[in-house]
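Entry under discussion copied across for reference:
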Amino acid sequence: MTVPALIKATEETISKKMPEFVENKFKSLEEKTDKLSDYIETTRGEIREKQSSLESVQELLKEQLNIQQCVVAAKGGERSKYEELKKMAEKQSEFKEYVNAALRDVEFYYETIKYQLATPKLRDLISHEDPGYSVEEVIYFYRNSDVKLDMREAAIDTLIDYYNMGKVKENVVQELCESVNSEQNLRVIARTTLLLSKLTGNSFRSLEIDAVKGWWEQNKNETKYQSPYKHYFKFLEYFYTLGFNKDNIKQVTGFLDETIKLEPDALHARCLRGYMMIIFGEFNKAEEEFKVVEERNKDFRWLLLYRSLLFACKNEMDKAVNLLNQALTKSPSIKAQVKTCVEIFPKYKEVTENKNVKWSGDKQ
């Protein structure tokens, strides 16, 4: 064949065979592509399934860890974490049984430790000894201790000690019941329910907050349970923060009158009323007030301090110095109030500067 004939024959063959050839090749490639796509999609599905399973496991571990952390924090005293556990227990979930067990663990823990009053009781800040608090002072620390000081646990433990000594009466029940609802320290709550059980004869478990609230709602009108200390707290609000002057001093002293009328053994309230009488210049009335305190507790530190002030105002300086030394021995940190006495009664400076006064840290 000539060259032109060969070219023509080749072109005709290509023209007839190439489309089929190309089509077969692409068809094979498409089939492989489809198979690859199916494989990729299958693999993606498996990955998604495994990822979902892994996320479920992670969520399970996260929830279990959260429950464990709540238990540890609750045993450390955090009420918020205990309440969080209680909310978890109300929900239907795969963790419900685990949460219920965690709650029982926390509650059994507090049932066990509520009798173990290991926390240091209220103490003088310098001597670290019990200076002999009045019940109303302890209640004040219990109800009004801020987060920084956080003396509530020491205060409730001191109240339990005083109850065992016969110093605490049923009239503290209102203060205890009212505190439970807002108290955020579970250790304080456990101690409070213990003391409430002793005072009322009603058996409360350590963390039965709702039971205490329900019982108080039914018994709050019982006179023997009602607090005589509300007016005393109001007086201290003026005494420590708001301040008072000649215009309102008789009014704020009236708060003390109300507390003493309801609780004659409120020794700090009586001493403060005697102090107010000294400010009024009513020395004889102040002495009568102090004699009542002396009959109940002759070594009460506030009695010693304010009687010292009274003797100074009467120019009996030797007696004033002797009583100030007794007050400082009983409670060295009372020197902070001594400074206030000097500010109000400049004459008292003669006592505080006396060489025979033994301040904390001085050689005896």
Q: What stands out?
A: Residues 3-113 form one domain.
